[in-house]
């Protein structure tokens, strides 16, 4: 299933919020650069409700690591090694990477 298919399913899920309740999914979150510095982790297993979006993942992560708020507006997300947005529905065993802007010199 590609990102476009997942976005379509997200729109359908928004129309029927009752469908978002049910079994949970387990994903792996990867932290890079500043996100790794702010959390002290390189990766984290995360459990969410079935039908959750990448935005739901971010909300849960910020609740656990409030310092991530610092980079929310400037980072990009990758789901299973493909850039994505906050409205994509996650699936069991997905891998979500938080990629802040990289500075160098």
UniProtKB/TrEMBL annotation:
Top-rank taxon of the source lineage equals: Eukaryota
Please list the GO biological process terms of this entry: Mo-molybdopterin cofactor biosynthetic process
Segments for region (Disordered) = 1-20
UniProt-listed Pfam families? ThiS
Q: In which pathway does it act?
A: Cofactor biosynthesis; molybdopterin biosynthesis
Glycyl adenylate modification sites are 105
Q: Name one GO molecular function term.
A: nucleotide binding
Q: How is it modified after translation?
A: C-terminal thiocarboxylation occurs in 2 steps, it is first acyl-adenylated (-COAMP) via the hesA/moeB/thiF part of MOCS3, then thiocarboxylated (-COSH) via the rhodanese domain of MOCS3.
Q: How does it assemble?
A: Heterotetramer; composed of 2 small (MOCS2A) and 2 large (MOCS2B) subunits.
Task: Write out the similarity annotation.
Answer: Belongs to the MoaD family. MOCS2A subfamily.
Tell me, what does this protein do in biology? Acts as a sulfur carrier required for molybdopterin biosynthesis. Component of the molybdopterin synthase complex that catalyzes the conversion of precursor Z into molybdopterin by mediating the incorporation of 2 sulfur atoms into precursor Z to generate a dithiolene group. In the complex, serves as sulfur donor by being thiocarboxylated (-COSH) at its C-terminus by MOCS3. After interaction with MOCS2B, the sulfur is then transferred to precursor Z to form molybdopterin.
This protein is called Molybdopterin synthase sulfur carrier subunit
Q: Which organism is this protein's natural source?
A: Acer saccharum
